[in-house]
Histidinol phosphatase (Aeromicrobium erythreum), 254 residues
Amino acid sequence: MSILAVDVRWGVRGKVVVDGVSLDVAPGSTVGLLGPNGSGKSSLLRLLAGLRPASSGVVRLGDDDLASLGRRQVARRLAMVDQEVVTDTDPTVRDVVGLGRLPHRPSWAPLSATDRAVVEASAATTRTGHLLERPYSTLSGGERQRVQIARALAQEPTELLLDEPTNHLDVRHQLELLELVRAASTTTVMALHDLNLAARYCDALVVLADGRVRAAGRPADVLTTELIADVYGVDAQVQSVDGAPHVRFTGVLA
Ligand SMILES: Nc1ncnc2c1ncn2[C@@H]1O[C@H](COP(=O)(O)OP(=O)(O)OP(=O)(O)O)[C@@H](O)[C@H]1O
């Protein structure tokens, strides 16, 4: 399934945060959402997830207008991993990953054999199987991040939205996660700060600045010295390494 946004706007307390964003994410592709702190990446992801309504514009999931779908219908196909997940109970990791099965079963029913198998498989894919019986609250930041990815995979989504999924992860786990996302058949949009990882693992990049799309397209077309200077205020050299642009930062612009 694909994700389409047309002229989407959202603001809060009189401030425009997402300012007329249009995106067309091809089925099965991986799109990196870049931009400085506060440029609107998380806010846009929440609009694409239907967690909040846009004040104007349209978001479509495949053939459907997101606004016409119920929360459960959305959750059967779209999973989101947010930056901070707060729980007020102390579930085990198995319980947390099992939450991903909620949209697929009656809320009163226990996990079926299929649900349990999907939980195990999602934990195996994210290398969190050894953590399943641990209280979630005792995990490290990186372990929690991987468990949240496992929870999202247990939803068996066709669309996956990830907000800084490599946050907290060591370099090996970062690469493993991005390989996993690239190999998955899901349509994925992920906010990232690392321009080089984004260039290497995404089919397309969208750069936000002040809530607007400043550039979008293939990594090699988007990540230019001019764009990086303009959007981040940083001087950089961009070379091609193994077919992907590689950015070397050389200083902060005055
Ligand atoms: N609920 C809210 N109330 C007030 N301001 C908000 C709210 N949500 C977002 N903002 C503001 O909107 C702007 C965009 O925030 P957002 O979290 O979308 O940016 P971001 O690009 O994801 O940033 P970061 O890279 O720092 O995570 C910020 O200035 C933020 O303070």
